[in-house]
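> forwarded from #structure-qc
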C-alpha cells in the first residue's frame, strides 16, 4: 500500500508579499525534488479538500474562524499580525491546508494509506485557538488531530514538533487535553519566545541553545521524547514538520542536517510501528531556504514511506 501525498494548487496562490520568507516557491521546490528523487513514484497524490467551518471549530473558537473569513481581502494585502498577511487567495489556501490534515486522517485511519505527507501552506503550528500569528491562520495539525479524536474517537494521539520555533499555537489548543501528548524541540530565544516552561503535564518541551547541533538534538529525542511516547502508547502520530533548524536556513541556528531529519523520522516510525500500526501523518511547517528545505523533506519522506 502506498503512502499519501496531499497538496493543492491553491496553497501556492497564497502570497504575503515580495521577499516574505514564507513564499509560494516552497511547495514547488519540495514537489520538484521529490519528483527528481523518485519518491513520488511511491506515493498516491491527492488534492486537498476545503476544511469546513465545523472541522475548524474543533480546534479554533467559532468567533475567530468567522473573523478570518471576514478579514479576507478582495484585493491587496491585509495584515492580521505584524508578519502575517492575507491576500485574496489566502483564505482558500488556508482551508486547503487544514483540509489536507483532515483528509490525511481519514485516509490513514481507514487503512487506505499507511502514512501521509501534506505538502501545504500556509503553515499552522503558531495559530492559537483564537489568534493568527507567525505566518499561520488555522492550525492544520490541530484540526486533523481533533478530527481523529472527535470524529474517529481515538483516545490517544501524539503530536511531534521539530520546527526550530516552538509550536505555541498547538500548545495553546491542546494544553490540558489528556488525549494528546505534544513533544516539541525548538531553539531557545527565538519567536514566539516561549515554550521552555510546559503549560501542562501533556507537554514535553525541550528548548535547545543556539548551535546545539545534531548530538544535542538526538540526545533530547532519546532522553525526553521517546520515554514519554513509550508510556503514552499513541494510536496515531502527527508531525509538525518544520525544517528551519537546518544549518543552511537563517531562520534559526540549531545546525541540523538532512541526516537528522531522517534519523528522527526513523525513531518516530519505530514508535508508530510498535503502538499504532505504523500510522503517521506529517504536515509541513517551516523551512525557508529552498534547497535545504527540499533536501530535508526528501530525507524525511524517504523514511516516512519506507523507501530508506
Amino acid at each position: 500500500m502506498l503512502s499519501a501525498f496531499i497538496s493543492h494548487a491553491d496553497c501556492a496562490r497564497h502570497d504575503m508579499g515580495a521577499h516574505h520568507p514564507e513564499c509560494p516557491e516552497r511547495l514547488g521546490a519540495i514537489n520538484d525534488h521529490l519528483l527528481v528523487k523518485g519518491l513520488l513514484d511511491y506515493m498516491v497524490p491527492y488534492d486537498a479538500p476545503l476544511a469546513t467551518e465545523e472541522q475548524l471549530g474543533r480546534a479554533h473558537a467559532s468567533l475567530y474562524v468567522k473573523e478570518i473569513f471576514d478579514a479576507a481581502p478582495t484585493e491587496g494585502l491585509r495584515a492580521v499580525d505584524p508578519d502575517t498577511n492575507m491576500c485574496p487567495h489566502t483564505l482558500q489556501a488556508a482551508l486547503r491546508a487544514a483540509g489536507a490534515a483532515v483528509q490525511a486522517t481519514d485516509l490513514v485511519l481507514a487503512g487506505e494509506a499507511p502514512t501521509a505527507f501534506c505538502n501545504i501552506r500556509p503553515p499552522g503550528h503558531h495559530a492559537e485557538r483564537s489568534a493568527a500569528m507567525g505566518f499561520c491562520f488555522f492550525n492544520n495539525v490541530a484540526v486533523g488531530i481533533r478530527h481523529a479524536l472527535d470524529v474517529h474517537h481515538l483516545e490517544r494521539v501524539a503530536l511531534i514538533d521539530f520546527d526550530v520555533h516552538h509550536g505555541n499555537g498547538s500548545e495553546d489548543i491542546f494544553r490540558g487535553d489528556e488525549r494528546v501528548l505534544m513533544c516539541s524541540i525548538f531553539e531557545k530565544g527565538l519567536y514566539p519566545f516561549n515554550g521552555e516552561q510546559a503549560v501542562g503535564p501533556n507537554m514535553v518541551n525541550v528548548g535547545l541553545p543556539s548551535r546545539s547541533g545534531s548530538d544535542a538534538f538526538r540526545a533530547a529525542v532519546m532522553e525526553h521524547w521517546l520515554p514519554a511516547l513509550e508510556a503514552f502508547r499513541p494510536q496515531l502520530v502527527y508531525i509538525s514538520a518544520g525544517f528551519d533548524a537546518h544549518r543552511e536556513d537563517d531562520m534559526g541556528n540549531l545546525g541540523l542536517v538532512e541526516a537528522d531529519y531522517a534519523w528522527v523520522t526513523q525513531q518516530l516510525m519505530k514508535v508508530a510501528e510498535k503502538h499504532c500500526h505504523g500510522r503517521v501523518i506529517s504536515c509541513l511547517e517551516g523551512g525557508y531556504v529552498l534547497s535545504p528545505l527540499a533536501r530535508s523533506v526528501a530525507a524525511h519522506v524517504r523514511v516516512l514511506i519506507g523507501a530508506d
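QC bot note: Residues 190 and 270 are 30 Å apart (CA to CA). The mean pLDDT is 98.
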